[in-house]
């Protein structure tokens, strides 16, 4: 089972590194050795259609799935993508792929929760081998591929690389896994990325680290118009995502909900009936109702008479015209 995100990953920049972080530093060096060695022996293969990758430089939730959905909808709405396809690894799912996701048939246990969410907006292919998945999309008539995650995957050439930055989290303590959240050395990652999507306010001064000349697109998260929530009610919120506290803070500070309690679980946590019953009893004792993310809801067992509310979240651009200008100039250079 994956562990919860260590608090020291996002400690204040000027604070003294805790003992555990210093203890893990040698393992970070081993991680980087493996990362660099893997890239030495893998040559990126170019797909027959443009590949746009929406990823991040840190492990855990930065909002890349809402960003990928928002980007596809924007490109399609303005005619920059006629038939876009999502391509994902399918983390947490049993299907090996390549597989076209069918939301009416597949579950999170088949394809992973992200794939099911993406499939609501555009055709989605699950394939750990991204090259094979890209070819399947091209064979089905896709004119562009949007990868949700995979920025550090060297197997497929990416025509445009986007990194999502969560303003609350930034780049954490600046250390690579497992001493910190970075998936690769920060300086290297910042240079490799073509443009950055900053979600929310830049509370950790991440933008000061962005190299001059790089495009920065700003966005924000908002609750969907279809959200089944009420400020008059009290909720017990729970989440098994990369950074659960981000969700809880959003509920309280942005949405303005009253939380009786917030219960974090490890990322991609496979909920069992006992977990849901425990949460239900806890909520009932507090006079609260259960509330979670859309991703978590897809991994919940169904138990009669236990209702769990979800909070659908959409990403919106601060300046959509700036987004269009960037991709109108970038996309033609990548078309075959």
Topology:
Blueprint lengths: L18 H22 L10 E5 L8 H14 L6 E5 L10 E2 L7 H4 L1 H6 L5 E3 L3 H10 L4 E5 L11 E7 L19 H7 L2 E5 L15 E9 L10 E6 L4 H12 L2 E7 L8 H14 L2 E4 L1 H5 L9 E3 L2 E5 L2 H11 L6
Parallel strand pairs: 1-5, 1-6, 2-4, 2-5, 6-7, 7-8, 9-10, 9-11, 11-12
Antiparallel strand pairs: 3-4, 8-13
In CATH, the homologous superfamily of the largest domain goes by the name P-loop containing nucleotide triphosphate hydrolases
The radius of gyration over CA amounts to: 20 Å
For the record, the count of structural domains works out to 2
Rounded average pLDDT? 94
Tally of strands: 13
Please write the CATH class name of the largest domain. Answer: Alpha Beta
Contiguous low-pLDDT stretches (5 residues minimum) are: none
How much of the residues is beta strand, in percent?
15-25%
N/C terminus separation: 43 Å
Indicate the structural class: alpha/beta
Number of helices: 10
- Outline type: globular
CATH architecture name of the largest domain: 3-Layer(aba) Sandwich
Q: Give the helices and strands as they follow along the chain.
A: HEHEEHHEHEEHEEEHEHEHEEH
CATH topology value of the largest domain: Rossmann fold
Largest sheet: 9 strands, mixed
Percent in helix: 25-40%
Strand order of the largest sheet: 3-4-2-5-1-6-7-8-13
């Amino acid at each position: 089972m994956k562990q919860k995100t260590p608090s020291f990953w996002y400690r204040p920049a000027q604070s003294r590194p805790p003992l555990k972080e210093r203890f893990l530093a040698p393992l970070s060096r081993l991680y980087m050795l493996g990362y660099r060695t893997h890239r030495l022996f893998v040559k990126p293969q170019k797909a027959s259609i443009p590949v746009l990758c929406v990823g991040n430089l840190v492990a855990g939730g930065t909002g890349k799935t809402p960003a990928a959905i928002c980007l596809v909808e924007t490109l399609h709405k303005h005619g920059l993508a006629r038939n876009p396809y999502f391509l994902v690894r399918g983390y947490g799912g049993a299907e090996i792929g390549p597989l076209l996701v069918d939301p009416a048939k597949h579950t999170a246990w088949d394809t992973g929760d992200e794939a099911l969410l993406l499939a609501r907006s555009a055709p989605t292919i699950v394939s750990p081998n991204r090259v094979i998945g890209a070819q399947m999309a091209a064979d089905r008539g896709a004119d562009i591929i949007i990868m949700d995650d995979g920025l550090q995957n060297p197997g497929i050439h990416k025509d445009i690389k986007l990194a999502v930055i969560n303003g609350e989290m930034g780049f954490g303590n600046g250390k690579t896994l497992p001493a910190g959240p970075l998936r690769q050395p920060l300086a290297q990652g910042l240079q490799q990325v073509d443009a950055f999507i900053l979600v929310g306010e830049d509370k950790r001064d991440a933008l000061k680290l962005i190299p001059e000349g790089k495009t920065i697109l700003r966005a924000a998260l908002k609750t969907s118009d279809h959200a089944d929530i009420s400020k008059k009610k009290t909720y017990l919120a729970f989440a098994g995502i990369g950074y659960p506290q981000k969700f809880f803070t959003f509920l309280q500070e942005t949405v303005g909900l009253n939380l009786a309690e917030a219960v974090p679980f490890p990322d991609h946590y496979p909920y069992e009936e006992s977990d849901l019953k425990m949460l239900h009893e806890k909520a009932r004792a507090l006079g609260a109702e259960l509330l979670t993310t859309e991703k978590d809801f897809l991994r919940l067992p169904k138990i009669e008479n236990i209702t769990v509310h979800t909070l659908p979240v959409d990403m919106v651009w601060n300046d959509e015209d700036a987004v269009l200008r960037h991709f109108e100039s970038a996309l033609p250079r990548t078309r075959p």
